[in-house]
Write a structure and sequence with these properties.
The chain is about 35% helix and about 20% strand. Helix 7 (about 270-280) packs across helix 8, helix 7 packs across helix 12 and helix 8 (about 285-305) packs across helix 9 (about 350-370). The protein is of the alpha+beta class. The chain contains 16 helices and 20 strands. The model is unreliable at about 215-245, about 325-330 and about 365-390 (pLDDT under 50). The protein has a six-stranded mixed sheet, with helices on both faces. A six-stranded mixed sheet has the order 8-15-14-11-9-10.
């Protein structure tokens, strides 16, 4: 006679609670899950254009054969009862690849307009959370898209943001593409043996064990955050650098209201080498130039609608917190910086210079606080509260009741610098797609690949019904900035080609400083040191500033025993003189070298801050 099974036998033992089929999502991952609504599907994606007539069956076989390299593509989410913990990833026992790969053809004439429209429609549809959170759409009939030959195809990928970030999304490219331009034999897919889905009791007990293993996670994280914040505050004060832009101080714009469910998407393609040439002339970063291009387009777009705020727009710029050489395997490892885009500055070059300084300020604070600390802050939000808060925010349209946290997201993901292929067919272009939410109706995704730079804008029909106009402004902003920077570069080249300039431009600054010190002798305290300034450039000069006696002596000569020596380029010194750069920021940027007593240099900086700016 069979022994009757006890009801208690169904309850898992403590030793079994470390379920190998339970992979917890992080607080950052949960953020993307909880902010999803009927009008805000939270997937990221890309549109890849592939030359030649790649066959759908071949593409599907390739994906199937490599699916094991991206484990989350065969996992689905399960929710913990009562939302006492974040959801978990589990193997999907009902996985069917045919539910994730679609096959369509572009309407005639098969041009960029049709491709853009189809991409926008697919992007509008949410992913089914009862299945693994991804889909590929194989698009045939690219017969009139000028970037590719007739009969080429496109692959539109969608992956939920809970599964990957932008850098981790490169794993999706590895799933499709390779570096070989040869047609190779496609191996059979590896056997998939899914583990059983845990029951609700297992989920609750697993969550309890997670808390038991790390009961001091919350206070420890708070302690680390406070320590990092104090460190950041100290460093910014010590370097006399203003704190970066605070959230919810961005101006209101038409881009920051309640969004609609219908997506708008478009992209522009630039030469990566041409953009790099601009950053070299301006002595800034590639990202600074990209922000400058986007800022120019935003300024023009809003100005033509009489909606340009007096305050500069603020961009949220994601920062990867992955360690160098770190794995790109799924999950979100990102933090964020808020950067003012200087849209209140009319001159494109001056706007770019301002953006560069704003970025330096943001990075200084970011490095002091630690990107991982910022990312980990998401872990302290209670699970159920985060879930409900996100939905209430959307339901009651709260985004219209306060200033935006920021106006636009601009994310830059560097891609492979070499060409990629799928079964011998070359990948020509790849363009990014990203989600928008209430209060953030525009996101701009930048992706570099094989010498090209794509700038892709995603919005919705309510926030930017005329996104195509904004996309054109991005191209025109890039052309305008290039024209002005190249002209500036030619002037700089002409100056450096002269055998020797008769006079350094900064001579006027030292004459101005000398005049100021004499007129304000009562404000100059003695014993502030002997400072030597080495000015580099077409006409190198050496200046001595003696602040040991009032009113101070400014003379073109070497100092016998200076307390501190400052070395700076003539052009950078003139930017300080005109109020476009301060001494501390120049030092952080590496434009100013200080040897000796830095306290004396800081004192000089405080004096220069009071000197009227040169015109």
């Amino acid at each position: 006679m069979a022994k009757k099974e006890s009801p208690l036998s169904k309850i898992p033992r403590l030793s079994d609670l470390d379920n190998p089929n339970l992979e917890s999502i992080s607080g950052m991952d949960a953020t993307f899950l909880y902010t999803e609504t009927s009008t805000s599907p939270m997937h990221i994606g890309s549109l890849a254009m592939i030359e030649g007539s790649l066959k759908f069956d071949t593409f599907k076989k390739i994906i199937h054969s490599r699916l094991h390299t991206v484990p989350k593509f065969r996992k689905r989410l399960v929710y913990v009862p009562l939302s006492i913990d974040y959801p978990y990833w589990v193997d999907d026992p009902n996985f069917d690849i045919d539910l994730h790969i679609n096959h369509i053809a572009l309407p005639k004439p098969g041009d960029w307009k049709q491709l853009r429209s189809v991409a926008s429609s697919i992007l509008s549809e949410p992913l089914d959370q009862s299945r693994p959170l991804w889909s590929f759409t194989f698009i045939e009939g690219l017969d009139n898209v000028k970037e590719v030959p007739v009969g080429s195809v496109a692959i539109l990928s969608k992956v939920h943001h809970v599964a990957i970030d932008g850098v981790g999304g490169l794993d999706v490219m590895n799933l499709i593409f390779s570096t070989s331009d040869k047609i190779e034999e496609i191996p059979e897919p590896k056997l998939y043996l899914p583990k059983p889905i845990p029951n609700e009791v297992s989920l609750i007990l697993n969550s309890a064990m997670s808390f038991a293993k790390n009961p001091f996670k919350f206070p420890k994280l708070i302690g680390n955050t406070l320590t990092a914040t104090l460190k950041a505050g100290f460093m910014t004060r010590a370097q006399k650098v203003a704190l970066p832009t605070a959230p919810f101080t961005a101006p209101k714009t038409p881009l920051n209201g309640v969004i609609s469910a219908r997506r708008k998407w478009n992209a522009s393609i630039l030469s990566l080498d041409r953009v790099k040439a601009l950053k070299n002339i301006m002595e800034c970063t590639l990202n600074d130039v990209i922000l400058g291009i986007c800022a120019g387009a935003l300024r023009r777009y809003l100005e033509e609608k009489n909606q340009l705020p007096a305050k500069p727009l603020v961009a949220m710029v994601p920062v990867s917190t992955r360690s160098k050489g770190g794995s790109g395997k799924g999950s979100n490892q990102i933090s964020n910086m808020l950067i003012q885009l200087a849209t209140n500055v009319a001159d494109p070059i001056e706007r770019l210079e301002t953006i560069h300084e704003n970025t330096i300020r943001g990075k200084t604070y970011q490095n002091a606080l630690g990107a991982k600390t910022l990312a980990e802050m998401a872990e302290v939000v209670p699970f159920g509260i985060a879930n409900q808060a996100a939905r209430l925010y959307s339901r009651f349209q709260l985004s219209e009741m306060h200033n935006p946290a920021f106006n636009v997201t601009i994310t830059n993901v560097p891609g492979p610098p070499i060409p990629l292929y799928v079964n011998g067919h070359k990948l020509v272009n790849v363009m990014g797609m990203a989600p928008v939410i209430d209060g953030m109706g525009l996101i701009i995704a930048i992706f570099s690949y094989d010498g090209k730079l794509t700038i892709s804008s995603t919005s919705d029909a309510k926030s930017m019904p005329d996104l195509n106009i904004f996309n054109r402004y991005i191209l025109e902003s890039a052309n305008e900035l290039e024209k002005l920077i190249l002209a500036k570069g030619k002037k700089k080249k002409k100056k450096t080609s002269k055998p020797k300039a008769e006079k350094a431009e900064s001579d006027a600054f030292f004459a101005h400083l000398k005049k100021y010190l004499k007129a304000n002798a009562q404000h100059i305290k003695p014993n502030n040191g002997l400072i030597q300034i080495m000015v580099t450039g077409p006409a190198p000069t050496v200046w001595k500033i003696d602040l040991n006696k009032s009113p101070g002596v400014v003379r073109k000569s070497k100092a016998a025993k200076p307390d501190v020596t400052l070395t700076i380029n003539d052009g950078h010194l003139m930017r300080i003189a005109r109020g476009k750069l301060n001494l501390q920021t120049a030092f952080i940027q590496g434009r100013l070298k200080i040897e000796g007593d830095s306290a004396r240099a800081m004192k000089l900086g405080s004096i220069l801050a009071r000197v009227p700016k040169l015109k």
